Amino acid sequence: MVGDHLGKVTGQVIVPENIGGGGGTLALGRLARSEADGTTVALASTSNLSIHPTLLKDRIQYQTLRDLAPITQISLVPNLLVVNPERIKARTVQELIDHLKANPEKITFGSSGVGTTQHLAGELFMQRTGTKMTHVAYKGSSQMMPDLIAGQIDLAFDNAPLLWPHIKSGKLIALGTATAERLTVAPELPAIAETVPGFKAVAWHGFLAPVKTPKALVDAYAKTINEFMQRPETQKRFDELGVLPMHTSPEAFAKLIADEAAQWSKVIETAGVKPE
């Protein structure tokens, strides 16, 4: 969507190239080595930008704010805390905390993989609440979800768009959102932070360029992309996808990346998380 818009505005052909491998780290390594002339930008995520530099360290070929120039954040994907209603009888975050403290390491939480925001959300939750659970890593949410619904695991943090259908059907119970505040689309669902102050574990996406890209070009990209993100039709499409549309300055996006990197670095080091 953004590429099509940029093409119309600039009159140039924008070619999206999906570069797999390393959870997006190969793509950002290539971006860091690209010419800083404004012809190459990349769309990246929380994991690529604020988690992998700590988790993968010497395995990746870039450091985010050293080698890349943030342009703008375009989305925020809320994570929700959900439980299997047959396995966990808690219906509030506090009841879950009490249950976990009464059953240390007996409760399992699933994730879409080691080092994902879903995994680290569980680690952060344990660190902030003084509880202990057993982590079960899957190769993606599509593999985890059937086991969660069937009761093979007890609970999980995962992206809201994937969870809403199962919550609405009653197969899963949502206890809270991992956003800093309640979601406008589900105001009845408490934020976990209302019980665990400061708790936030979300996914997000944004555009970046090579670090030496002239600021005038970075600002021009930000202006064009942000104008597109504020269009009603764009916001409507993002709402349909269950994703919150965002539009920020390069400076605000850089601060988000740095703040998230500081949080997840501490979580990773405290929990002793190792890459697979």
From TrEMBL:
Similarity field: Belongs to the UPF0065 (bug) family.
Domain of life from the UniProt record: Bacteria
PANTHER family reported for this sequence: BLR1237 PROTEIN, TRICARBOXYLATE-BINDING PROTEIN
InterPro entries in UniProt: BUG (IPR005064), Bug_dom1 (IPR042100)
Protein name, entry field: Tripartite tricarboxylate transporter substrate binding protein
Spans through the membrane: none
Any single Pfam family the record assigns to this protein: TctC
